[in-house]
């Protein structure tokens, strides 16, 4: 029985602690959301002063990203304060020059974080200083602020909504004018590109005609080279034929000489044989007479 009482007491204490932690987290979330709304009103006013369509588009994307980031309220408010500071200066720098990623927010660089969290916030607006002072209040004061903020939200929700809608309409109107101006500039650029394209097409046509003339001249030169080559080959063949004729003539002359010498030698052999035959016959006659 004592153990059960102890367990029940422990469970009650744990539930009480969890409820207090949950209540404190809710109060902190309400305070951060309230500050986010106040800062968002100023940021929308600053966006109206922008002249660049790209910067307006980037701001809208970043606001949508921050508005949907509920699980990182502290970091979300730091991002919004940094965006407000840059817009008040009239330009976007660093991380806000590109579209946000779909992942969670990463901590700001040290330079941006120092500006957002330093104690020298006298250069910021009054609502920024009030937000920094709120962080040092006690839990009782937080409860009082919670009740007071709820009452103020219930009484002024319509007026804040109307003001936000008015700012949105002004931003949309300014964005529309910038889009029209951008369309006119793109139309003029497109027309200049069309004229340039026509000029390049004419130049290309002229160069193609010039290339056709060059091709015709090259064809004529190749034909001329072929003719000269054929003529040179014919002349070379003629010279070879002449040389062959001269060689044949020399061979015929040599053949005649050899034939003449052979006939002389043959006649000499015939005479010697006749003399030998006569001598032999004479010797035989004398031999038989004896």
Automatic annotation (TrEMBL):
UniProt source species: Temnothorax curvispinosus
InterPro entries: DUF4485 (IPR027831)
Residues covered by the DUF4485 domain: 32-110
UniProt name for this protein: Uncharacterized protein LOC112455560
Gene transcribed to yield this protein: LOC112455560
Lineage, uppermost ranks: Eukaryota, Metazoa, Ecdysozoa, Arthropoda, Hexapoda
Top-rank taxon, per record: Eukaryota
């Amino acid at each position: 029985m004592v153990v059960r009482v102890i367990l029940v007491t422990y469970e009650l204490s744990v539930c009480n602690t969890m409820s207090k932690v949950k209540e404190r987290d809710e109060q902190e979330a309400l305070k951060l959301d309230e500050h986010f709304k106040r800062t968002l009103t100023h940021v929308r006013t600053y966006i109206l002063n922008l002249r660049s369509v790209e910067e307006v588009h980037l701001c809208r994307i970043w606001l949508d990203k921050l508005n949907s980031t509920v699980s990182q309220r502290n970091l979300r408010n730091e991002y919004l304060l940094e965006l407000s500071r840059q817009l008040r200066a009239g330009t976007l720098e660093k991380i806000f020059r590109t579209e946000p990623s779909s992942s969670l927010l990463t901590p700001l660089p040290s330079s941006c974080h120092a500006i957002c969290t330093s104690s020298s916030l006298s250069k910021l607006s009054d609502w920024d200083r009030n937000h920094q002072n709120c962080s040092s209040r006690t839990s009782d004061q937080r409860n009082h602020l919670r009740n007071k903020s709820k009452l103020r939200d219930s009484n002024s929700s319509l007026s804040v909504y109307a003001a936000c809608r008015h700012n949105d309409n002004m931003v949309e109107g300014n964005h529309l004018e910038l889009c029209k101006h951008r369309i006119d500039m793109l139309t003029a650029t497109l027309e200049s590109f069309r004229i340039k394209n026509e000029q390049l097409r004419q130049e290309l046509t002229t160069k193609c005609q010039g290339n056709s003339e060059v091709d015709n001249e090259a064809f004529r030169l190749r034909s001329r080279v072929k003719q000269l080559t054929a003529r040179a080959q014919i002349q070379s063949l003629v010279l070879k034929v002449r040389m062959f004729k001269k060689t044949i003539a020399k061979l015929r002359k040599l053949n005649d000489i050899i034939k003449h010498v052979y006939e002389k030698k043959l006649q000499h052999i015939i005479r010697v044989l006749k003399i030998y035959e006569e001598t032999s016959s004479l010797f035989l006659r004398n031999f038989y007479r004896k």
